[in-house]
Structure formats: structure tokens, C-alpha cells
Amino acid sequence: MKIRKPMLASLIALTVGLTAGGQAWSQDTLKDVMKKRGLTEKDILAAAKTYTPTGGRDEYLAFSSGGQSGQVIVYGVPSMRILKYIGVFTPEPWQGYGFDDESKEVLAQGRIEGKDIVYGDTHHPAFSETKGDYNGKYLFINDKANPRIAVIDLKDFETKQIVVNPLFRSEHGGAFVTPNTEYVMEATQYAHPYKGSGFVPLSDFNEKYRGGLTYWKFNMEKGKIEPENSFTFELPPYSQDLSDAGKGPTYGWGFTNSFCSERYVGGIEKGRPPFEAGCSSKDTDFMHLTNWKKASELVKAGKIGKKVNGMTLISMKEAVANNLLYLIPEPKSPHGVDVVPTGDKIVVSGKLDSHTWVYDWKKIQKVMKNKKFEGKDPYGIPIIALKDALDKSVAVGLGPLHTQFDSKKCVAYTSIYVDSMITKWDYCKGKVLDQLPIHYNVGHLVAMEGDSVSPDGKYLIALNKLAIDRFNPVGPLHPQNHQLIDISGDKMQLLYDMPVPLGEPHYVVAIKADKLKPEIRYRSGWNSRKDERSPWKTRAGREKIERTCDANGKCTVNVYGTAIRSHLTPEIIEVTEGDTVSIHVTNLERAEDEVHGYAMYGHNVQLSIEPGKTASTTFVADKAGVYPYYCTEFCSALHLEMQGYLLVQPKGYKAKSGGLKAGTNYTEADYKKQVKTNIDTQAVINQVVGFITSHNYKDFPTVVALVEDATDQLGFAKEAKAKAEAAAAKKDWNNAMLWANQWWQYQVKTADLGLRAKTYLEEHGAKKVK
Ligand code: CUK
Ligand code: CUA
Fold first, then answer.
1. What is the CA(443)–ligand 1 centre distance, in A?
2. Nearest partner of 401 among 175, 194, 241, judged by Cα
3. φ, ψ (nearest 5 deg) of residue 370
């Protein structure tokens, strides 16, 4: 017999929220809607290119810097639907990031000189790469304000590691990765004395202030940056800006530009011309070329570098002596530096210029080989003359910043800040192909996989600095505006405006969605931040509370707890005032998306416990009192009942005799009524089970997982049933009724899972096997 959902739903009372009146489906035609909303045919076409029907998936996922929020924003392309905020340098309560003990350890790695820094100014996300192509394994992002790099694992979209640069006090040119993720680049921005050198007056600027470029070693297998195997190039105090890693013919090299090679120090309040005047007075600044490949070999061989604050520092002298470091003049106040997909050309833009400048690697190499330099800078670094390195310059518009690449050969897109537009141009022929106005003042831009060796083209997103009049006003602070552009044809077409209300995202990287294989659940009892079994892993029925005291009478209570629809175990935790309390909760669920939360009054406790995860919270119960706790995720019909009490008893407290006096008295009739409901419910479950087992469900891993979960729930139901019957045998109708009710609770969950499995089979064309 075929079971219809409504019948099942009413029987097992899963009708919450389903009774809201039917949709008044509009009778309007497309024409009517266009007229009512003032839409043109072009609008409708744009809408059709981005609209993603319910249940639909995006072809690309974009990972956006969260700017000053210190987070990463994940959204789909072309739908522009936001999917996730990843807590990176900043606590993120929903995910328990910065609240559970495990993630607090990650944030603590980002402490600077002993201080917690709980914000970040994130700028440049970068995917891990294999042979210059995104491999979908890791994402890196930098913090400009406090030179740090974070590692996000794309298995679960969680931040796993933060490294603090032991020398820098400012950075900008990170994170950029080398083609096999051998290294993650991080360059300074504002010159400063290296950490540990104490106070150095500005009068010693030229001699003691420094820039730098760190190559952080990445271990792809472990998913970890290895500071001990990383090294840093000492660089002149030129205000290094962005970087990019070479590929193909430029493999082994890194490129980093700068914008204040004047080495100017302002002081407007003392009557000196300001930074902005002194830092843009020369016509050119310098691009730095660093040979990381050769440097790493020399460091490994112990030939160069010395450890400073645990970091291998390569002095400018050593770098010059070993031909590891060169300079090439760049146009006025350069900003972006981007290596073309084929790796043989380098595109640089000048913020105060109207050209992009294309450098030719063959020409550069020739100069290096013949040692025909223009001269040396004050630090002895050889300078390659601009005319000896330049391939061409192309007039693209005023204030070009960043460049991305198309799947079509030689086609590039450059963001034009001052003119508020995107210029599509050909870097081989030096020709502008198309220009599109955007709204307004674009910073970075991103094409699909647009900085890899094999860009996909298709879409471009302009990351605009100003939204001004594009959205409903929300006060003086406006959202940022990400504009989606169709670049599949000859002419660019603007499709969609997406407000981003979480900081100023400088850069975004976008990856083909099918390269990502995120997990659905953790292995049971998992510490997700360390990627290992948690010592606090707790299995069903093994929940316990342990209290241990040291010689000074300081006591610690460890609660080994679990969460499963719809109860937290334990439900009552008794401790004594002054105890340190550690509550560890393992989510026993295996079903997709069955997350439980854990929040408690007055202790800043908020956990997110995804299926399989074990999360912990530790605090001192320093005030006697009653502290309710509960699950913060609406996980089931009886989610509100997922609750408990932490009882912090005063020292020396003695409980009153007579036990717990709370609740209602139940009768034999109540018990029998409940049992009848349970028997009916079981009949429904049997039918669902019959449907599933009569199909090839084992061919569907999702269904197998659901069935496993359902079998567990049914096992729990059996235990509760036994307890109910034992109590009934003793005519203890209160306990009999309550256990019978618990038995039914497990049945409801079983049915819920079974129904999901059945729907899945129906929707995925399962076949009958008998
Ligand atoms: S930066 Cu913001 S527009 Cu930090 Cu890459 Cu160029
Ligand atoms: Cu678990 Cu709500």
C-alpha cells in the first residue's frame, strides 16, 4: 500500500507549520508582472540568467573576504545567494566559533604579543592549487591589520589554523599561493622596524625600517602552514602592496609591487606635506621580483638566512648576492600585479595612471642573464630598466586597479576605480574590446577561476566600494555592492546587484562547485578544529559527570554529555560554587543537517554541534544559582523540550530529603492511551520500512545513512518500551506513562527519518527489488 505523506504526518503529529493557508498562486502573465514592476525585456533576460529555482544549485562558489568583519563570506554564482559566513579572525556565535574550547584554541593562535585580537581586516582569499589549478582543498586569507594568515579546510568550511607573522607589523600582499601551494605569500605594507627591535625613531627610517615578503611553507597533506620551514625576504621600506606568484615560465618567482618607494614619512600636524603627497611624488615605484624556488633550496642547504623570532630571514645582501631579488620600475602608485594564465606576462596597474602595463618575462630574463641593469637602489638591489622589461602599455581608463583573465586567449578584465567601469581588453594585441559602467568605484573584480592557469570565463563580479543609491537606504553606513556581469559574449552584460552588509570585501575567488566535496557529518566524537577524535567523545548511554579535586580543594567537573533529538543528556548537572565546569557535548546524530546547539544563561556559552562533533565549553561556576540551558537549533518538534538545569549549589549545601517533587500524576488510562498511539505509529513505521526495503535503497548512501539513524532510534524506542512495561508491571503509572511517551518520541523520530528516506528514494528514481 502506498502511504501518502499527509496521512503519516497527521498520525505522527508532524504538522507543525504545515497548516498555513494555501499559496494564492498569481494568475498574472509575464507581461502583467513586467508592467506592474516596470521591468524591461533586458531585465527579464538578466533575471533568467541568475534566477535559481528552489532546490537548484549554483555552478560556482565564490569565497569573499569579509573585510573588517574578519570573516569569509561564501555565496553561489550566478544566483548570488549567500550560503555561509566562515568565522576566521572574529568570533562567530552561530557556529560556536570563539565560544567552544576547540575553536578558542584556534583564535588563540592569532594572539599578538599576548593580546587577543578578535577582529581582522581580511583582504585576499586564495585557494590551494595543484599545477596552478584550484584543487578545492583549502582556502587561505590574510589579515592586513595584524599580519596573519588563516587556513580554512574546505572539507567542513572551518578555520583550522592561524599563523602570526613574527616579524611584520603590517601587511597587505597576502594571501597568494604558488602553483602547487608550496608557499603562501605574505608581504608587508607599511614599513616598520621588525618585531622585537623595540622602539626605533622615524629619523632612522631609511636604515632601520623595513618591508618584507614571507613565503609560508604549506603542507598539503597535513593542511598546515609550517612556520619552521618558512622564510622571509628582507625588503626596502617601500610600502610593498600586492603580490602574485609566477606560473609556467615564471614558476619559481614571486612579484610584489610597492607604492611609496619615495620612503616618505608624513607629519602634517608638524607642518610637513602629508603622506599622500610625499608617496606619489616620483613617477614610478618598484615591482619586486623574488626567486622563492632558489631561495628555498639555499635556505634548506643552510647557505642563506638566519633565524629571527623563529623565522628564517634572508637579508637583502644575501638575496642580491644570490640573484634572488630584482626591482623593475612601475607606473605611478601601482596597485594590482597579476600574472597572466600562461605565466609569461605580468600586468600592473597604476592607481594614478590610465594604463595597464604589461611586462614581458622573456625580456626580463634577458636583462638578468646579461646583467645589463639600469643601476641599483640605495640597498644595492639591481634595477631592471622599465624599457627593457615592458611589452606594452594600454590605455584602459583612469585608475586601473586589478586584472582578471578570461577563458578566451589574451582576454583580460581590469577594474577601473576612478572611472567606475570594467574594461575588457586584449593583452596580446594591446586593444580595448569593451567597457561597462558599474556602480560605483570598483576595487577588485573576479572572473570564474580567473587567477588560475585555466580560467573559466562565464561570469565576472565587480566588487564595488560604493553603493550610494543602489539599495534601500539603511543609514549612513551602506552595504557594499557586488555586481554580477555576464562575460560569455562579446559585450559584457550587467545582471545583478548584490548588497554585502558585512565589511568591505576586497577580493573574492570563485571555484567550480563540483571541485568541492564537503562532508555531511563528522566521524563520531570528532574535534573538528584539530581533526582528531575528541578525548571527550561520549556514546549513547555512557553519559557521566566526573568531579575531581586537587590538593588545594579546587574542583573540576567534567560533563560527558550527548545531544540527540530531542534531549540533552545529562538534563541536570549539579556542581558546587567555585567549581570549574567543562561541559562536553557529542552530537549522536548521523542524519544530514541535524545540528544541535547548546546555550546557557549567564556564562557566554553557545555551542554548535554538527552531527558527529564533540564541542566543549569551560567556565567557572562562581555564583550559586540555577542556570537553565537548552538546544539553540530548532531540531525537531520537541526541540523546545531539549533543555536542562545547571544547579550551582552553595558550598556545604545539603539536599532536602524526599527527592524531586515536580510534575503531574498519571493514571493507568493515560498509560493505555499512550500505548495505543504507539502501536498505531508502529504500523506506520512498518509501512515506511516496507517501502524502503522493497527498493534498492542500498544504492543510495544518503538513504543508507538515514536508515542507520532510524534503526538507532528504533533501538532506543525498544529500550523505552521495556522501561514502560516494567513500570506498568509495578503499577507505577507515572513512570509507565512517561516512558511510554518517550518510546513514542523515538518512534516519531524514526518515522521522520524513514519518511525522508522514502521521499529521497521516490525523487531519485529508486527501483523495486521485490
Ligand atoms: S586591495 Cu582593496 S581594492 Cu587590499 Cu587587494 Cu585593491
Ligand atoms: Cu536539538 Cu533543538
1. 6
2. 241
3. -85, -5
Which pLDDT value is given to residue 14? 38
Give the residues surrounding ligand 2 with Cβ less than 6 Å away: 563, 596, 631, 633-635, 639, 642
The predicted pLDDT at position 165 comes to 98
Other beta carbons within 10 Å of 57: 10
Which contacts qualify for 598-603: CB closer than 8 Å, 24 or more apart?
A: 598/563, 598/568, 598/629, 598/630, 598/631, 598/632, 599/629, 599/630, 599/632, 600/627, 600/628, 600/629, 600/646, 601/627, 601/628, 601/629, 602/627, 603/627
- Regions of the chain short of the pLDDT cut 50: 1-22
- Which residue is associated with the grid cell 538507532? 712
518 alpha carbon – ligand 1 mean position (Å):
29
Does the beta carbon of 351 sit less than 6 angstroms from any atom of ligand 1? no
Report how far ligand 1's centroid is from the alpha carbon of 144 (Å): 10
Amino acid at 677: T
Cα-to-centroid distance, 682 and ligand 2 (Å): 24
Using alpha carbons, list the distances in angstroms from residue 424 to 10, 78, 346, 464: 59, 20, 17, 17
pLDDT at position 591: 86
Ligand 1 centroid–CA 216 distance in Å is 21
pLDDT of amino acid 277: 86
pLDDT of residue 770: 67
**Looking at domain 167-353+355-395, does it have CATH number 1.20.1250.20?**
no
**Ligand 2 atom closest to 639 (CA):** 2
What number does the ligand 1 atom closest to the CA of 417 have?
Answer: 3
Q: Which helix (H) or strand (E) holds 59?
A: none
Burial pattern 371-400, b for ≥16 Cβ within 10 A else e, equals: eebbeeeebebbbbebebbbbebbebbbbb
**Does CATH number 2.60.40.420 belong to domain 533-649?**
yes
pLDDT at res. 400: 96
Give the model's pLDDT for residue 7.
44
Is the CB of residue 444 below 6 angstroms from any atom belonging to ligand 1? yes
- The per-residue DSSP string of 442-487 comes to EEEEEEETTTSSS--EEEEEEEES--TTSS---SSSPPEEEEEEE-
168 and 151 Cβ atoms separated by less than 8 Å: no
Instruction: Decide whether any atom of ligand 1 lies within 6 Å of the 754 Cβ.
Output: no
Whether residue 550 contacts residue 524, with contact meaning beta carbons closer than 8 Å, is answered with no
Cβ(507) – ligand 1 distance below 6 Å: yes
> Which atom of ligand 2 lies closest to the CA of 566?
1
Write down the pLDDT at residue 5. Answer: 46
